[in-house]
Amino acid sequence: MTDASAPARRAAARPDTLRLLLNNTLATAGLAIFALIVLIALAAPLLSLPDPDATAPVDRLLRPLADGHLLGTDALGRDILSRLIWGTRVSLLVGISATLIAAFFGSLIGLVAGYAGGRVDTLLMRGIDMVMAFPYILLALAIVAALGPGLLNALYAIAVVNIPFFARNIRGIALGLSRREFVDAARLSGKSNAQILFLEVLPNVLPVIIITMSTTIGWMILETAGLSFLGLGAQPPQADLGSMLGEGRKILFTAPHVSIIPGLMIFALVMSINLLGDGVRDVLDPRLKSGALTRPVARTAVAKGNMPDDVAPRRDAILDVRDLKTEFRFGGEVFKAVGGVDLHVGRGECLGIVGESGSGKSVSAMSIMGLVPTPPGRIAGGIALLDGENLFTATDERIRQLRGSAVSHVFQDPLSTLHPLFTVGAQLIEAIQAHRPLTKAQARAKAADLLKLVRIPNPAERLKSYPHELSGGMRQRICIAMALANDTKVIIADEPTTALDVTVQAQVLALLDALRREKNTGVLFITHDFGVVSAICDRVAVMYAGKFVETGTTEDVLKAPAHPYTAKLIDCVPVLGQPERRLDAIEGRPPVVNNLPDGCAFAPRCPRAKDDCSEAPIPLTELGENRTVRCLHPLSAEAANG
Amino acid sequence: MDDAALLQIDNAGRVFGGGRTLFGSKKPAVHAVQDVSFSVRKGETLGVVGESGCGKSTLARMIVGLDAPTGGRIVFDGRDLVAEAGRDLRRLSREVQYVFQDPVASLNPRKTIRTILEAPLIHLLGLDRAAREKRLGELMDAVNLAPEFLDRYPHEFSGGQAQRIGIARALAADPKLIILDEPVSALDVSVQAQVLNILDGLKDRFGLTYIFISHDLSVVESVSDRVAVMYFGRLVEIGPGRTVLSTPRHPYTHLLLQSAPAPGRRALISEDANTELPDPYNPPPGCAFHARCPRGTDICMTKIPPLEAMSGETDHRAACFHPHEAR
Asked: How far is residue A190's CA from residue A168's CA, in Å, rounded to a whole number?
């Protein structure tokens, strides 16, 4: 049972870091300017520049473009171009070295504090707090005053002043990483604390160090210039950008070019570094990488043209979806997450969609009310009718009205669905008032009724609770109450009990089952667990690689699964009371939905597959009343006979 | 005490928090694990069942030495683990290993699989390069992964493959006891079966002893020889898997079994909503379960029931004053 299938090469689908950086126009411009400045500064000894410190009182204060002096001369007749290039060299060198020193010591302190925690953390961070308590320029001045003026001392001062910045950033990240499971795993692999800190934690902190460096280096150059401007950095006759600016200040009105030229250089240098730094941060920061920079629109885009116009809705269905197709576009690839799904839910009926992760069950459900993020997702075809009303062609305003009233959702994790800073009462009242013109008092009374409906004891008191004060089961009851707030016709429940303990799960399932009968509400119930399906669903649809492979009443499908995938899926779960049963694992892995085969997507893993299975798309065929299966060689025939 | 006991836990406890603040007021304390005693025989699988917050993971971390108990003793193969883990975790890690719940989070995203699997070989066994190469091949073979996966990074693997790498890492040092902390609960059901089958095969092949922690009763039943049920930091029932799960004595085990969804089972029982876990900062006197218990009487509110052998069965113990009858 060697797993020969290669792991998904997700990296290939994503553009690499440099390409991402170059996509950002501003960052590219910053990179170009910065590279140019660095190159010129590095090449200073090769360019046949006049001696930057050679004074020539005869040629003093020449304007730019003068003969032999492209940028003119300063008050002592020194060539400004030469001084500018040599000065940039010094400023860059000091800025970069100070950044490196600050990054090294700051990161070290941050790493140790974050990893060790407890007393060490308190001690180190309070020390850092003390450094931060001084205004930074005052501290730098004090350090230089103590050490005496000079470029090297200015460098130390700037490095020391910036250590807290690194230490605090890195400590936060290291603190989080040190509690991660891979650190425990490394400890059990026999690594010592130092090995864990530098070989396990540090590589994960490195991007943050680089981000912090890229955003501080410009700042450091400015600070160096500032100290030199005050006469505490570079000492005459040595040129650096700050001291050039300082020398030109006195003659700003008579010879403005002497100060304006180094000023422009500082501006260009710092600006280019900051633009580049922002670009680097956007590329490297994992929080931004996971899509925080893309701003999805309020409703999933619907592709025009593939929609059937007039479909007679099923009379018994409150929700009727036909041939729903939803796809995601990443780079040049199209992932067909949902590839043609037909489903209908009647009043008071519960339809279960069962499938493994990545089968498209959640995306199907989210597509109905346009909750799939665009970009990258879009609905590529199909029609969804709510009580005869086409949801895909409805206006945005109409969809907004329907969301949370006629169709509402209950999600897996109630803690992340509820807002942590508002009481559950405030959130319930908001949900009620969003759809109905009630006064606050009326809405509050209604909210209390809702809590009573979901069997929460002492509802008036509970309304004042914050989500974190409630248990997981209570929170999910609140979510169900919120879903029922506005005469819901259909509840879409996406794994609502997966995060709950079994005893609580049983309670919530029983509650949901009772409420849908009481309120005559349709439920679209998404789960991966056939046990949960049995507990609540009237009908069930099994999903694989974006398509339903089998539908039918729960009883029929569980008793005699027709599709080999359904049968395998049931067989691979241990059943309570049958410890002897050998678990029948499904070999191989589900296909990736950007490269689906023509024929049956399950064929490569199917023990019953024959040649014809992979030739052409297989239709969903009727198999008796209310029963369909997408298979050429279903199991049912034998099951019925034997 | 069992002669063949590989691991013996006596009255182990773990308190989080507590102590006093700078100004002398008491800090709140939580008893995550209280007064837990059991033994694990060589070659068996002990399943530990319980809901979130019952202390099962804390117990597991204490056994592997990632956490130290605040009371009681944990004896492994005749050696006191608590004393040893504080001094030399490496020696303990050669004997006891751990498989984590979240397979992807337990692998460092910036290390190749080779580096991850080599760590225990270098630090725990001190193998040289040639011996390591040979052992890596054996390990990958043991968990059914192709050797060319060694040079890939964790994010390139699916959950099931990542968990097999986690198992290979635990196996690397050739331990006697492996603690499996919810090893399949983050996996899809089809993958779950693959991993369970691999674990089953490895146990026979390497003569391992497992402590299998899970919230899923059906999974625990299918892998365990004996089952221990935990509630609110205490052991409430322990015994042979088949007996405990077919004729549970403790009302909590009973409730768990009735709540577990199973294909083809329609009616789940439903309790009242206000019966929940007690507040851990303010534990009730007496039996922690009594507020939810249909059989509770006055004595349950005042005295903590001891873990006692049930009538007629020596190896089946439950902590209840009014246990269910054996059928």
From this structure: 29
